[in-house]
Amino acid sequence: MSRRYDHARVTEYWQHVWEREGVYETPDDATDPEYVLGMFPYTSGSLHMGHIRNYAITDAHARYRRMAGDDVLHPMGWDAFGLPAENAAYERDTDPESWTRSCIEQMRGDLEAMGFGYDWSREITTCDPEYYRWNQWLFTRFLDNDLVEYDVATVNWCPDCETVLADAQVETDDEGVTHAHAAGGVCWRCGTPVEQRDLDQWFFTITDYADELYDGLDDLDGWPDGVRDSQRNWIGRQEGASVAFDVGEFGTVSAFTTRLDTVYGATYLALSPGHDLVSELAATDEDVAAYLEEVASTDDAGLSGVETDVTATHPFTGTEIPVYVAAYVLDGVGTGAVMGVPAHNERDFGFAAEHDLPTQQVVEPVDESGTDLPDAPYTEDGMLTSSGEYDGLASTAARERLLDHDGVEEATTYRLRDWLISRQRYWGTPIPIIHCPQCGAVPVPDEDLPVELPAYVQTTGNPLDAATEWKQTTCPDCGADATRETDTMDTFVDSSWYFLRFLSPHFEDAPFDQRTTDEWLPVDVYVGGEEHAVLHLLYVRFFTRALADLGLLDRREPVDRLINQGTVLHSGKKMSKSAGNAVAPHEYGAETTRLFVLSAAHPTQDFEWTVKDVSTAYDFQQDCYELVSEFADQRTRRHRSQAATPLRTESAPHDAYLEREIDRTIEAVTEEYERFRFHRVVGELQRFVRLLRRYVGYEPPYLFTYSRGLRVLVQLLAPIAPYLAEELWHLLDEDGLVAEADWPESLRDIADHRIERGLVQTTLADVREITDVVDISDPEAIDIVVAAEWKYDAYRIAQQADPDDAIVGEIMGAEPMQARGDAAADYAADLADRSAGLEPIIDGEQELDVLQQAVWLFEDEFDAEVTVRRADEADDLAGKAKPNKPAIHIS
Fold first, then answer.
1. Is 745 strand, coil or helix?
2. Which helix (H) or strand (E) segment is 225 a member of?
3. How far apart are CA 589 and CA 622, in angstroms?
4. d(C-alpha 533, C-alpha 174), whole Å
5. Half-sphere exposure of residue 757: CA atoms within 13 angstroms, side-chain side
6. Which residues are 149's β-sheet partners?
7. How far apart are CA 109 and CA 802, in angstroms?
8. Which of 81, 152, 163, 396 is the most buried (most CB within 10 A)?
9. Can you tell me the distance from the alpha carbon of 789 to that of 452, in angstroms, rounded to the nearest whole number?
10. Percent of the chain surpassing pLDDT 90
11. pLDDT per residue as tens digits for the range 210-220
12. Is the peptide bond before 437 cis (omega within 30 degrees of 0)?
């Protein structure tokens, strides 16, 4: 039998067996299965290492939960619509659908080759009419329930992609927060500077859910803090006040502030370039018009601004203050107008310094400690000064009192804007609307869905607008000639509910079977990149709430636990084709690649791809295979003849150590799987393999203990190296498939497995240190002495004592301690000094038992006679021995 594992020789066979046996299919009558989902991939043509890491995480967890006895739903599908497919089709002189289908075929093969265990019977593809029919159905339901608006809007337009972009698809450097019409934004896909245009557009009114989406983040305990913070910032809820400033013939301008207590310090009014009043002013003010052109052509307007010809009346003081147009005021924040308070706001202070505007302090520290004004603003709360009748009030009280003034109202503002879903492209879901001259915008009836895409024709601009025959139709209401809506939906609509379709992918009466959905949701584990925090991950939360309000779901949050996988780096940079540092997933073999990406780091951490570490993953597979194949050979020889083989059928004392270590390993590995720490799973299994190899080398192994150890090794390995595990399971002559085997259970209580293991490792290290320090190269005998029982009693008294108590007194108050006089008092004082750092221990009998079982490890390493015993009162070593820190004498 070959002692080298060749994964390429076995992958197709085990793929066939898994498929034949339906190992990964979830029965429709399953009761609340563990729903494990990786964000489905965009059909780009091939898998990259980021995909592999994501899907290796979900696959390992799904396999573990299945072996642990759960029904598991682990589906896969394709995010298949989108502009990149149109671009790729153009470059290759083909059509988007042909390109997309070829990508799916390639990527599906890649996923199967990696050994990922998906329920392919539930596969969905968003460009299939059978899928996007339900996008259109949901759109009409949203429309019926006032969750859709059609309006003229100033939108973000990418001249290169020739399409509208949602707010979240415009990237800026504004502290990672991007909103519509922000100067200097670029397209998230191609990096082209974004322009603004006025177009008729379709919107989902996600702002109706702004408060609920914001408040609901507090309950998402299973989500990373970074994602929750990103969504809070994106929703941008701020509670404060709206202050009305009179600007003469132009009426009033409302400025939003969270610091109403500083209103007396307002020395100017600043408007965003997109403010309605600015458009009016630009028509007659050349300086304003020129400034708007300037900021539209730069990505760094900084603290620039221009003074207008109008002034505003301060509502509290009656004084006239200048009105500026300033790029630092954003259209999408608050009201697009800021009352400039240089003395108490960092940005206002910087703008005032840049434009020589006055600074007026109106808040001072309560403790009269002073401020750095006029050199730096004072931004904390304090006590009002120079604020008329409000002088002497604390900031909090002043904010309440000032709300009673005319022109001031309590207000809440949001950064969040409605979700613009219109796209002027071909490869997306056609919006199911018919425009009738008499009836207006009429939804396509359900019986006429799906509205399928026409044949693709290469053109500039909007391809559907050029599909004349497809566009011409009749009104469903009056029968008159009418035209179809030529916009398609943002592809984020496709991915906002796809996790629901997986639950009933062949259901024909609705997007999903509500009975199944109500039982199987939420998604228990969802894995994907943090970059989706304010796009996909916000939209799925919105969709789930909207569907609940439509009576289609019984829950309002879609995902219980979210894991953001870290980045795979190569040469210090994110691995990617564009960076020229990509490594193809198949280059090192499926098993080695997936084992390495799981072992390299915690799933949420970045890690560096190195050939050395990849080789370690490969060598580990070979070590496992060699152990099992050697055993299989020995067992076969034993069955075929009565000749002596290196397998014992009578147990020896050191076999008990391996039995207990098998149980310890089961407990440790199970704990790491539960915590998604696959890198520690691999570390535990590597250590276990080394121990098994050492056990075999010590003397012929005990058949029953050793075979159990190998069987457990394979079971624990199965979630992270499925091909290898199936091969090893077969070599062990076990029944069935390891993918369907039960998760191993320990034979005895190993609650203290980490303490036991640490005890042996520490004691071995202590012996090594003594032999090094004393320079004993060839020890004859090692005497290991476990502490007297009374020391364990004293230790536990110290552990349980309140830190503020007199620990020595607590210990010496016990009658058995008093009988030991000075020895007990000295030990009590030592424990008192260490009370804050007392580690958990096992009791004396357990310590003695563990070390006696481990004697063979000491004998094997030091080739000496080893004795483990309990200290007695007359023993010279008794005073040195402490709980879980035995005394050691080497001769």
1. coil
2. helix 225-235
3. 13
4. 17
5. 18
6. 203
7. 62
8. 81
9. 81
10. 80
11. 999 999 999 99
12. no
Q: Which of 741, 711, 718 is nearest to 635 (CA)?
A: 711
pLDDT band at 804 (very low <50, low <70, confident <90, very high): low
Q: Are 598 and 720 in contact (CB under 8 A)?
A: yes
Cβ atoms of 330 and 182 within 8 Å: the answer is yes
Rounded CA separation 669/671 (Å): 5
The pLDDT of 418-431, averaged and rounded, is: 94
Pairing status of strand 865-870 against strand 781-786: parallel
Closest CA to 559 of 231, 233, 237, 238: 231
Q: What DSSP letter does each residue of 707-721 carry, written as one string?
A: HHHHHHHHHHHTTT-
pLDDT category at 255 given cuts 50, 70, 90 is very high
Measured distance CA(327)–CA(245) in Å, rounded? 20
Question: Which tens digits make up the pLDDT trace of 608-658?
Answer: 999 999 999 999 999 999 999 999 998 887 777 655 568 899 999 999 999
Question: How far apart (Å, rounded) are the C-alpha atoms in residues 587 and 584?
Answer: 5
Structure tokens at 143: 């429309």
The answer for residues whose C-beta is within 8 angstroms of residue 47's C-beta and 6 or more apart is: 41, 107, 110, 111, 114, 585
The answer to whether 365 and 378 are in contact (CB under 8 A) is yes
**Residue showing tokens 């803090």:** 225
798 touches 841 (CB < 8 A): no
| CA–CA gap between residue 60 and residue 721 (Å, rounded) | 9
Q: Map residue 326 onto helix, strand or coil.
A: strand
Q: How far apart are CA 761 and CA 755, in angstroms?
A: 10
The span from the CA of 874 to the CA of 871, in Å, is 8
Find all residues with CB under 8 Å of 125, minimum gap 6, and list them.
77, 78, 80, 104, 131
Q: Which helix (H) or strand (E) holds 443?
A: strand 440-443
- Distance CA(721)–CA(713), nearest Å, equals 11
Stated pTM of the model: 0.90
* Spatial separation of the C-alpha atoms in residues 715 and 694, rounded to whole Å: 20
- Residue 541, Cβ neighbours under 10 Å: how many? 23
Q: Which of 636, 643, 642 is nearest to 707 (CA)?
A: 636
Q: Which helix (H) or strand (E) holds 72?
A: strand 72-73
- Helix pair 722-731, 7-21: axis angle to 10 deg: 90
Phi, psi of 221 (to 5 degrees): -65, -25
Our CA dihedral for 631, 637, 643, 648, rounded to 10 degrees, sits at 30
**Residues for the chain: how many in total?**
891
